[in-house]
């Protein structure tokens, strides 16, 4: 068994074990992947202030996100087709999150259904909604999330049209994979993944198949998105879905201060500063670079969260130091899941927790809730000095 010390170790194992089609689906950004790359590299531009001779006993990473206690302010982001990275992936990830004491967010485009995840977990999870053209279907989806006692709704605003990721087109991404010679050859080397898949019935989009009307072929995520996602989603509709949900509402995909102000106006409980992990608008700012301007605009009026590019506990600390109250990981937990199932997700969370805790101590801080800009050295012009 290899010694796993960081998230990158998990990514390497995941790459060996998961089918190429699903590894590529996770490990890519749109078009040139500039935003995907900068999401991670921009974290490196922020330096930490080492402080000494500060009593570091009794540290705490515990905090709250939208009023819910969390062992550390790191939630699992909604990731479509998680159940194709590893059999029953959503259930495994949700269980790992529950045991660790952090929120799990189930994607609309999950393989395991809302009911299935609820049945196999005890802690309430969060549900991420993609708004579809079919309003009745969306209303039923919201009701199903209520019935499953989901404790927050994450409404994603940055994917009404799909950003093009070249590899998905070239690989013919589908679930379950189509048996082409190229795919079969690749799958023949992934026996661990294959055994898992043979042992489960969950291989289709569980929230959709059998629930949405007129679904002929649901195997292609790209076709479904193009046909079903509502391109007319606007702030009025956001207000309406917030009313239908009636509980905590988190708006995901905010990258601009003007949109952050709109989110505030419609009464969101929190926003997620996010560019969808660099998978949508290539050429947009990295999330960490976009954060300061959004904090200046709304930071004292609404809870601000961040995702996109977090690969370490140090990245988490940097986002919190710039003002975010919570963070999310997408790929960082998918790597763990694809490498080692539930145990791998737990490993991802443990790695991040340890890195966060030690970094906090070496910066002379004891409580994650007290982190502020003083722990950072932020280069001049980090947030941009635009015309
Ligand atoms: C493979 C994959 C699938 C995703 N699917 C969804 C989804 O179904 N809904 C959603 O709101 N965001 C989705 N996202 C975006 C994540 O929620 C999150 O914003 C992103 O992964 C954060 O960046 P990171 O992966 O660098 O942590 C997906 C991301 C990845 C990598």
UniProtKB/TrEMBL annotation:
FMN binds at residues 78-80, 107, 128, 130, 156, 252, 274, 307-311, 330-331. One of its GO terms (molecular function) is L-lactate dehydrogenase (cytochrome) activity. Belongs to the FMN-dependent alpha-hydroxy acid dehydrogenase family. InterPro entries: Aldolase_TIM, Alpha-hydoxy_acid_DH_FMN, FMN-dep_DH, FMN_HAD, FMN_hydac_DH_AS. Residues 1-381 form the FMN hydroxy acid dehydrogenase domain. Keywords: Flavoprotein, FMN, Oxidoreductase. GO terms for cellular component: plasma membrane. The active site is at 276 (proton acceptor). Its EC number is 1.1.2.3. This is L-lactate dehydrogenase [cytochrome]. It holds the Pfam family FMN_dh. The lineage of its organism: Bacteria, Pseudomonadati, Pseudomonadota, Alphaproteobacteria, Rhodobacterales. Its cofactor is FMN. Glyoxylate binds at residues 25, 165, 276, 279. CDD domains: alpha_hydroxyacid_oxid_FMN. It is an enzyme of class 1 (oxidoreductase).
């Amino acid at each position: 068994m290899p010694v796993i010390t960081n998230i990158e170790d998990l990514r390497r194992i995941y790459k060996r074990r998961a089918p190429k089609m699903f590894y590529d689906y996770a490990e890519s950004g749109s078009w040139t992947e500039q935003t995907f790359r900068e999401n991670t590299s921009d974290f490196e531009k922020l330096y930490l202030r080492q402080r000494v001779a500060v009593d570091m006993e009794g540290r705490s990473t515990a905090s709250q996100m939208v009023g819910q206690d969390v062992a550390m302010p790191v939630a699992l982001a909604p990731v479509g087709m998680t159940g194709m990275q590893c059999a029953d992936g959503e259930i495994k990830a949700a269980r790992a999150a529950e045991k660790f004491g952090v929120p799990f967010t189930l994607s609309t485009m999950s393989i395991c259904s809302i009911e299935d995840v609820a049945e196999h977990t005890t802690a309430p999870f969060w549900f991420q909604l993609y708004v579809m053209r079919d309003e009745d279907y969306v209303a039923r989806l919201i009701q199903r999330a209520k019935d499953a006692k989901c404790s927050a709704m994450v409404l994603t605003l940055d994917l009404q049209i799909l950003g093009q990721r070249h590899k998905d087109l070239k690989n013919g991404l589908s679930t379950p994979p189509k048996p082409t010679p190229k795919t079969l050859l690749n799958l023949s080397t992934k026996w661990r993944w294959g055994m898992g898949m043979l042992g489960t019935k969950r291989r289709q989009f569980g929230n959709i198949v059998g629930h949405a009307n007129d679904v002929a072929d649901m195997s292609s995520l790209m076709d479904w998105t193009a046909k079903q996602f509502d391109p007319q989603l606007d702030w009025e509709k956001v207000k309406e879905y917030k009313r239908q949900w009636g509980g905590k509402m988190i708006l995901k995909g905010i990258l601009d201060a003007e949109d952050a102000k709109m989110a505030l106006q419609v009464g969101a409980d929190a926003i997620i500063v996010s560019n969808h992990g660099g998978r949508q608008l290539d050429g947009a700012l990295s999330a960490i670079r976009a954060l300061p301007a959004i904090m200046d605009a709304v930071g004292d009026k609404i809870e601000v969260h961040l995702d996109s590019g977090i690969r370490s506990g140090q990245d988490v600390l940097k986002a919190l130091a710039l003002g975010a109250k919570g963070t999310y990981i997408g790929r960082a937990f998918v790597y763990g899941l694809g490498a080692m199932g539930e145990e791998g997700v737990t490993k991802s969370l443990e790695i991040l927790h340890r890195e966060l805790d030690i970094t906090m101590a070496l910066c002379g801080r004891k409580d994650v809730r007290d982190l502020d800009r003083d722990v950072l050295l932020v280069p001049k012009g980090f947030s941009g000095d635009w015309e």
